[in-house]
Amino acid sequence: MKRVLVAILLTISAPLAAQAKIEAPLPGWLTGSWLMEDGARWADEYWTPPRGGMMIGASRMGFGPELETWETTRIMRGTRGGLSLFVQRRGEAVVEFPLAHVSAAAVEFANPLNGFPQRIRYERVGQLLIAEVSRMDGSDTMRWQYRPVAQEAP
């Protein structure tokens, strides 16, 4: 039984170990203020520019005047040495999502051991930012299409 359990754990953790080997710069193209509005449903997301080996983010989602959820995020070197996305939803425990895929205009982080989401993906399409969360197999996908928010001068 122990051998079977060890084999299962090694199989599950192998993708995580492989993900840590991806070398990539911080995704500076995430920088900015982003807004999604769909009727009364809204979401906004904010990312600082890369600095000191880290990007810091925050997001909120709601309906009408009501806030439904919020989270703080950061992208930096993770526990395995590669880039990771760290997510703390509503002040709960921080969850690490190691880098799984990167290209010039997209970045994907994955943690198959997390309940949901297991994959978090960001992609720039022209001026838009597409954010997507799902399970590892792509099921239960949720997607947000953000537009940039003009910054007011101080």
Which tags fit this structure?
154 residues, Lipocalin, ten-stranded antiparallel β-barrel, 1 helix, disordered N terminus
Description:
- With 154 residues, this protein is mainly beta.
- The protein has one domain: Lipocalin, CATH 2.40.128.20.
- Helices cover 12% and strands 49% of the residues.
- The chain contains 1 helix and 10 strands; from the N terminus they run αββββββββββ.
- Strands 1-2-3-4-5-6-7-8-9-10 form a 10-stranded antiparallel barrel.
- The protein starts with a helix and ends in a 6-residue tail after the last strand.
- Mean pLDDT is 88; it is low at 1-20.
**Strands of the biggest beta sheet: in what spatial order?**
1-2-3-4-5-6-7-8-9-10
Low-confidence stretches: 1-20
The helix content is 10-25%
CATH topology: Lipocalin
Q: How much is the average pLDDT?
A: 88
Count of helices?
1
Biggest sheet character: 10 strands, antiparallel, barrel
| Architecture per CATH nomenclature, i.e. the level-2 architecture | Beta Barrel
Number of domains: 1
CA-atom Rg in angstroms = 17 Å
Number of strands: 10
Structural class: mainly beta
